[in-house]
Design brief:
Elements: H1 10-15, H2 22-36, E1 41-42, H3 48-52, H4 58-80, H5 103-118, H6 124-139, H7 145-155, H8 165-179, H9 184-189, H10 191-196, H11 199-204, E2 207-208, H12 211-224, E3 244-249, H13 259-263, E4 268-273, H14 276-288, E5 293-296, E6 306-307, E7 315-317, E8 324-327, E9 337-341, H15 345-355, E10 361-366, H16 380-388, E11 394-399, H17 409-418, E12 423-428, E13 438-439, H18 448-451, H19 455-467, H20 477-489, H21 499-503, H22 512-525, H23 531-541, E14 613-616, H24 620-631, H25 635-668, H26 680-693, H27 710-716, H28 733-740, H29 746-753, E15 756-759, H30 765-776, E16 782-785, E17 799-802, H31 811-818, E18 831-834, H32 837-843, H33 851-859
Parallel strand pairs: 3-11, 3-12, 4-9, 4-10, 5-9, 10-11, 13-18, 14-16, 14-17, 15-16, 17-18
Antiparallel strand pairs: 1-2, 5-6, 7-8
């Protein structure tokens, strides 16, 4: 991550003008509306009444039921129940004598008939009927029915309006009967399938604010409705706004960074970020929703602040086009959200105070612990200066990982000393809608009951997890269930904490959150004298997550023999049949041993499913070269690629020279990228550059070497089969050509051919811009990055590797690293894979030396 506090580039300005997608717009609108109504709830799934846009009346419901629903439902009760009470259903609705539909309604329904039949999958009643059909069909055999029961019960909670009352009555009758047959243990035993892998729950659940957003909005709205101290006379008694320091902690990917868009409804916001990528993502979302935004990046004075067009109050227009030509950036009356880097905070603060009552401003400091894992850092003095000279009495410290309150007392005391009657408010939340299992170096799941044979250490771990509940996200649900079942079955648990006692009789109480909380309760209340026996039994059961026997062996090719059509069977020896010199291109580390679990470009590639992977390491180049070597690309492939790369490098040199000349011409004419005027010479050069770009050679590898293509999987998966959910890169020829023209190291270009990008400091900034775009669009198989990039990679990853060379990383930064995975809104197979087991052990216990806490107390002080 580039922590340099520079002005925004042309590309960055252009990126914020691209609106977010329609799905995200709906979420943003909910956040804005949610500030006014924190209990906002909506669901896009339509009932049939809503789909056909008729008012719901008893007559309409009865007609639709008779025409569409009853034939699908009542007959199922009779055909599948074999004389059980389900077959005794009689409509329980007392609707009285119903009128006939009006002729106009009948005509309209006939017109809509075809659309209804074509779009059944989008209509909620038909979904319920499908689930109901499976429920009734399976209850006869007492197998698999509980999945449908649990799903129906959860979906009935959704806020979907105008559902047909006859459908609800029949389903309610069936559910009551089947529910009486079902035990809680049956649900819990199958919780992984019923909850985590249930495709219906997340798809059809209501959209709401996160709990932490509700709490933040409520607190800030209450304060905003109070009177500013500056406007109150001495003899008046008014409820006055109070200074507030809000410690806002919630997992990554749960909307913290978007919360300022809601807060801006009645406050002015200064959003402070070290990771400029996060600030730009917020700007893009805010501008999409037509919020008035300004920027302070790399500012030395207020003259460096730039307003977006929406924020402009004074401006001139282009006489020909009518568009805004020049903005007066010195007039900031309209600015709702000021986005700045830490270096520019004081400048941005004074700018905002000049146009607003300071008590109406919220300083929203995103990830304040960035760089605090270092004992010394260039930004520490800047951070200290910002805190010391801050004049804004309401500050939010927003972070996925903040130190415990008892370790931040000096920060609280200092804030109170600066602002009289200041309140210190803590908002802590965690999200367990998905599980992201931690795998150790042997690919086994890591959980407290596997890690410690000493029960005292278990208790320490449980207490630590309760204080840091975001860790629960990384508890594997399958392993938890196995442990819970065993302890309950063997009666090793206090009777008050058995499954039935804890969850009661309501099946809908069983959620992923509750199960993980229950797991901690079981660990605390298990029979202490039996712990060693429990521990040993569970250790014996534990198996690697990916434990299929390997049928492929690693081969180090030493001569050019063309692409292999088969891989030598295990135990056979491949001998050299011709004498050739070893081929050294590219300059990579020669590695003959392929460790299980990290052979990402060969035998372990198929385990990386559903989306991209991030590999975090200190030595990005070493890992990158290792994977080029491990892929074992033959000499003849390099011989085909190299001349094309050489040609592209020559084109790159010519294009770079011409672009420098264009810049020189612009400087002579006092123009820039903000001004479209170009000299005649510059236009000619630009035309020539366009022509040269068309000459760029397309470079590609045979698909057998590209991870998770069909030929690659046929070679490397344990049984030679193709896994459909194994993730494959999709960079495309045009993007590949773009990167081949960049002035980057040769091994970086080779990695791209494997679908792998790197995040590191590279002189050619265009490379990182392209990588960010590819990451955002999920077109890379993997990104290799140093940990300084974790705060700036706000992308969707399904798997993560944490390398051995990061064993000195602090616990909070480790959690930040883990937060890169599982950020999307769907449940897929996720993993966090540690290459050093000691790091896992440190994760589950309080740190001996909390560097972030020490630095917070040192830098967030007025001394």
């Amino acid at each position: 991550m580039d922590l340099k506090q520079n002005k925004l580039s042309k590309t960055e300005w252009e990126s914020i003008e691209k609106p977010v997608g329609d799905a995200e717009k709906k979420i943003l609108k909910m956040i804005i509306d949610g500030y006014t109504d924190v209990n906002i709830r909506f669901n896009e799934t339509q009932s049939l009444n809503n789909y056909i846009r008729f008012d719901q009346t008893p007559e309409m419901d009865y007609f639709l039921h008779k025409k569409y629903f009853e034939p699908l439902m009542v007959s199922k009760l009779k055909s599948y129940t074999d004389g059980t009470r389900l077959g005794e259903y009689d409509c329980r609705l007392n609707t009285g004598k119903l009128k006939k539909l009006k002729s106009g309604e009948t005509v309209r329904l006939n017109i809509l008939e075809k659309n209804i039949q074509l779009n059944k999958s989008d209509i909620f009643e038909f979904l319920l009927i499908d689930l109901y059909t499976e429920l009734v069909k399976n209850v006869k055999t007492r197998k698999n029915y509980a999945f449908y029961l649990y799903t129906i019960l959860q979906l009935r909670k959704a806020k979907i309006t105008n559902i047909n009352i006859y459908v609800l009555d029949i389903i309610g009758y069936a559910v009551e009967y089947v529910n009486s047959l079902t035990s809680l243990s049956n649900i819990i035993t199958n919780a992984y399938d019923f909850i985590e892998q249930n495709k219906y729950l997340l798809k059809y659940e209501d959209r709401t604010l996160f709990n932490h957003q509700r709490e933040l909005f409520t607190i800030c709205k209450q304060n905003a409705n109070r009177v500013s101290p500056l406007s109150v006379e001495e003899d008046e008694e008014e409820e006055i706004k109070k200074p507030m320091l809000i410690l806002y902690t919630a997992p990554t990917g749960t909307g913290k960074t978007l919360s300022p868009i809601g807060l801006a409804s009645s406050n002015r916001i200064i959003f402070v970020c070290v990771a400029r990528h996060i600030g730009l993502a917020l700007a893009k979302s805010a501008i999409t929703m037509e919020k008035k935004v300004a920027f302070a990046f790399g500012c030395e004075t207020a003259a460096d602040i730039r307003l977006h067009y929406f924020s402009a109050k004074d401006y001139t227009r282009n006489k020909r086009t009518g568009s805004i030509a020049k903005v007066d950036n010195s007039v900031g009356d309209n600015v709702e959200i000021m986005i700045c880097d830490v270096q520019s905070y004081i400048t941005a603060m004074h700018y905002m105070i000049a146009f607003n009552d300071v008590n109406d401003i919220i300083t929203y400091w995103d990830e304040p612990t960035i760089t605090l894992d270092y004992e010394n850092h260039d930004l520490h003095e800047v951070i200290h200066n910002n805190w010391k000279n801050n004049l804004v009495p309401t500050m939010v410290l927003s972070c996925a990982t903040l130190p415990p309150p008892d370790e931040m007392r000096p920060v609280y005391d200092d804030f109170r000393s600066k602002f009289d009657d200041a309140e210190i408010i803590t908002i802590t939340s965690y999200d367990c809608k998905k599980s992201i299992p931690i795998l150790d170096k042997n690919q086994c799941c890591a959980l407290p009951h596997y890690l410690y044979d000493d029960y005292n250490e278990v208790l320490v771990t449980v207490n630590h997890c309760r204080q840091n509940p975001t860790i629960l996200r990384y508890f594997d649900l399958r392993e938890i269930i196995t442990f819970i079942k065993y302890v309950n079955k063997e009666e090793y648990i206090d009777e008050r904490y058995t499954i039935d006692s804890y969850f009661g009789v309501d099946i809908t109480n069983i959620t992923m959150n509750r199960l993980k909380e229950y797991y901690l309760e079981v660990l605390i209340h298990v029979n202490r004298s039996e712990w060693r026996k429990i521990y040993n039994y569970m250790k014996q059961l534990r198996k690697p997550r990916f434990n299929e026997p390997r049928t492929n062996s690693y081969v180090q090719r030493v001569s050019s023999m063309g692409a292999l059509t088969s891989v030598p069977k295990e135990g056979n020896v491949l001998t050299r049949t011709v004498s050739t010199a070893n081929y050294s291109k590219p300059d990579v580390i020669q590695q003959k041993v392929a460790p299980v679990g990290v052979s990402i470009t060969t035998q372990d590639a198929y385990t990386l499913t559903d989306g991209p992977t991030i590999f975090l390491t200190e030595d990005v180049d070493k890992i990158g070269k290792y994977y080029i070597s491990l892929t074992n690309i033959p000499k003849h492939s390099f011989d085909e690629i190299q001349p094309k790369i050489d040609m592209n490098n020559k084109l790159t040199a010519r294009i770079d020279k011409m672009e420098r000349e264009i810049e020189h011409q612009n400087e002579k004419c006092n123009t820039s990228w903000e001004n479209s005027k170009m000299t005649k010479e510059a236009r000619a050069l630009d035309t020539e550059i366009t022509r040269l770009r068309k000459e760029v050679q397309i470079v590609s590898l045979e698909s057998v070497y590209v991870p998770n293509t069909c030929p690659h999987q046929e070679r490397w998966t344990p049984d030679g089969s193709v896994h459909e959910n194994a993730f494959v890169s999709s960079i495309g020829d045009e993007m590949t050509k773009e990167i081949m023209l960049l002035d980057v190291e040769m091994h970086i270009k080779y990695l791209l051919l494997l679908g792998i990008g790197v995040f590191k400091q590279i002189p050619d900034k265009r490379y990182m811009e392209i990588m960010k775009q590819l990451a955002d669009e999920q077109r890379l198989f993997m990104i290799i990055a140093s940990t300084d990039y974790i705060y700036g990679t706000n992308y969707q990853f399904c798997h993560g590797f944490i390398a051995k060379d990061l064993n000195g990383m602090t616990q909070q930064k480790t959690l930040q690293s883990m937060g890169r995975v599982g950020r999307n809104n769907i449940q897929q197979d996720y993993t966090i894979r540690f290459r050093d087991n000691d790091m896992i052990n440190k994760l589950f216990k309080p740190p001996e030396n909390n560097m972030e806490a020490l630095n917070l107390c040192k830098l967030f002080t007025s001394d």
